[in-house]
Amino acid sequence: MPDTVLVTGGAGFIGSALVRYLIRETDAQVINLDALTYAGHRSTVATVAADPRYHFVQADVADADAVARVFAAHRPTHVMHLAAESHVDRSIDGPAAFIRTNLVGTYTLLEAARAYWQALPPADQQAFRFLHVSTDEVYGALGETGHFRETTPYQPTSPYSASKAGSDHLVRAWHHTYGLPTVVTNCSNNYGPYQFPEKLIPVVILKALAEAPIPVYGTGENVRDWLFVDDHVRALWTVIRQGRVGETYVIGGQSERRNHEVVRTLCQLLDEQYPRPSGTYADLITFVTDRPGHDWRYAIDPTKIMDELGWQPQATFEEGLRQTVAWYLAHQDWCRHVLADTRGLVRRGTGQDQEISA
């Protein structure tokens, strides 16, 4: 029988990429559970919405009754848990939503999965998997050298990363205590189409197109390891199908870049694909006050998933970024639509909102 995959947060950035991948590349039934908060939109999965193997359920992952009904109605063989609040700046301004979704939501899903799994026949129990998708930010910050690995001690530094660290610990505890067959992944910074326009790469693109100042935190020297979202979702499917129960796999693109390098590369790509009437987009770069507790450097060593499961990133950073710029240029209406119900591109995490859109 085909797999039935419950994806939480499947209308968000990474979740929707996973949903599209599963419908396109597998024969699985896909159940998309999403609350459709500010960063979740049905438009992200519009290309697969008519497929008979796709089913959408609008529900909050922290709603125990709604989650239990999904398990009872759809009988998943796999759970891929991506529903999360994920923006550091927002977590500084309003941590309560991060505690509810990332901690209470994960607990609620684990309890529903445990009750469902324990009632399955032995063969179905053996096949069932629960994948928890997390972030490298739970490990804190690195200096100029070194890499995060599966054994790196946790040292979260923001309300966001602390809430994700807590959810990771819950998942491991439910495996150790109850035997629930779980796997955890921690990934580096994702980029690609459909990313909500408050993260660095879409912000730079939209500011440039609006002829507005392009904000760069501090000196722009902070380093991130970038992972193209399509490579990430391939890794997630590989892990849930082939990964060892109870294990953790860190996933990175092996593409470390300083923030100002990312911004300047984006400006160069925009100069090629959508030239300014005069000057270059780099002329718009503006350095702004850093956010509180800004981690210095993240970098992942993905040796374990590469050696054990055979996964490799396929897109170079330059190739992925070129595709991403082209997508945002072709989908400016989508950006305007998803920003319409928010306060637009405002800077958060400073104690007061500061308008940074044109």
Can you walk through the features of this model?
The structure is a single chain. With about 350 residues, the chain is an alpha/beta fold. It has helices at about 15-25, 65-75, 90-95, 95-120, 120-125, 160-180, 200-210, 230-240, 260-275, 305-310, 315-330, 330-340; strands at about 5-10, 30-35, 55-60, 80, 130-135, 180-185, 190, 215, 225-230, 250, 255-260, 285-290, 345, 355. The longest helix is centred in the first third of the chain and has 24 residues, at about 95-120. The radius of gyration is 20 Å and the shape is globular.
Key features of this structure:
single chain, 358 residues, alpha/beta, 7-stranded parallel sheet, 3-stranded mixed sheet, 14 strands, 41% helix, 17% strand, disordered C terminus
Order of helices and strands: EHEEHEHHHEHEEHEEHEEHEHHHEE
Helix content: 40-55%
Please work out how many helical segments DSSP would assign: 12
Shape label: globular
Question: How many E-type strands?
Answer: 14
Order of strands, widest sheet: 3-2-1-4-5-6-10
Secondary structure category: alpha/beta
Low-confidence region ranges: 347-358
